[in-house]
Amino acid sequence: MAPHLGPRIDISSHWLRLTSAALVATWAATALAEPSLHVEPGPRVLAGEPVHLSVIGAQPGAEVRLTAERWFAGLSVQRPKPRLMRSEAVFTADPQGRVDLRIAQPSQGSYQGADPRGLFWSMLPVAGVERPAADSVDTTEVHFTLHSAGARSETRLQLLPSLPEVRTQPADGLPGAVFAILPGAQKRPAVILLGGSEGGSLITRDAAPLASHGLAVLALPVFSPPDRAGVREIPELPAAWADLPVETLNKARDWLARRPDVDATRIAVHGTSMGALLALLGGVHLPWVSAVVANVPSDVVWDGWGPGVPLGRRSTFSVAGRPLPFVSLVGYEEELQGFERNEPVMLRRAFERGRAARPDLAAQARVPVERIRVPVMVIGAYDDQMWPSGQMAQAIAERRAEAGLATEALLFPDAGHLLYDTGYAPTTGYNAGLRKTGGTPAANARAQAEVWPRTVQFLRRVLAAGDDPAATPLPTGPR
């Protein structure tokens, strides 16, 4: 018996009427809509988290022009006045009237090729704009403007350097040091942050961003050189980097151990540049170190420098009161004379000449990384013009592999020395002056965008940090 189907309905004609009506409604909505730029996940994003930019509602095949502006101060201990930076890119809308910046290649603009961060890192200074006081503008805000077919719209994005809940405070008893932590009931594993040969307090700016990922962070300046006027930012610290005791890290560890909100059995040491060398030496000589991150490191100890310290006379580091064997730079003063001759200064050459001149000393000065029995991450760049961090990071990983020890190595062929950022800050000025740090703007930004999340993931994994507070969506309402 055939099933009862009820009243007969003319499916085809009914569908055609519905489809025609839908098409008319869609056409009318498209005709009335204006193109708009969408920023995901929202108007406020923690710096370093992925940002997706897309244009919708444009006319298919229409030219879409995007500009981005931001006040940016760059990296400096002296906190220079910010300058207005701008980037631009022109696209062609796809058949659906969209431009997805993850896959769309600009036909012209400040960067080439599909790059979701292109509008961020490719910014250049805007000429003729007066530079305001450091605290008078919002350097976290990016202002986008969209132009297409006579329509114009604006969108703003705030790149928060850290979660607003992060608490920061001076680390009493450790000159210039800053401690940052998210409040909570549990004890948090800790990271000691070390800066490079710039010295001073610059490294302390990175405490709160890293603490936003559930880690207790102690940013520890270890020396403070004089500036051009002879002024030292932190006079309680040494003025020269010479015979610095590796045991300096013990003071930081003891300070963390006195805090009830820190688990002192889980402490990593993260260093950048010369600080990376100190972090590796800490992993060799200090039994409490739980993990090491060495960003653009050296695999050998070099000679110390600073006021009253002639090159080639003293080591950069000491252990138990004894200077460590070191390699002397060759032609360092001559390299610096490039500033007077208006020629590019690439300090890398002095390091390479020193190593080539005395391979016997290089063997004695090598950091015995095979003695580090805790997790290690190394990050190097083969176009680093400060020193050959790519080759030295590779040597560290290879030596540990020979000893049967795993190392997480991030090695970048076209990047330079300045890898400690999120990939969303302008990188166009890194080699603008005579002092060259290496890498192309695009390669440096790509490397930074990989280094930051991989470093956070590594530290949280090896320290068993638990849930990531930064994964919680930020409020999207008015600021």
UniProtKB/TrEMBL annotation:
It holds the Pfam family BAAT_C. Residues 49-147 form the Acyl-CoA thioester hydrolase/bile acid-CoA amino acid N-acetyltransferase domain. Residues 247-464 form the BAAT/Acyl-CoA thioester hydrolase C-terminal domain. Keywords: Hydrolase, Signal. GO terms for molecular function: hydrolase activity. InterPro entries: AB_hydrolase_fold (IPR029058), Acyl-CoA_thioEstase_long-chain (IPR016662), BAAT_C (IPR014940), Thio_Ohase/aa_AcTrfase (IPR006862), Thio_Ohase/BAAT_N (IPR042490). Residues 1-33 form the signal peptide. The keyword Membrane does not apply. The keyword Hydrolase applies. Belongs to the C/M/P thioester hydrolase family. This is Dienelactone hydrolase. It comes from Pelomonas aquatica.
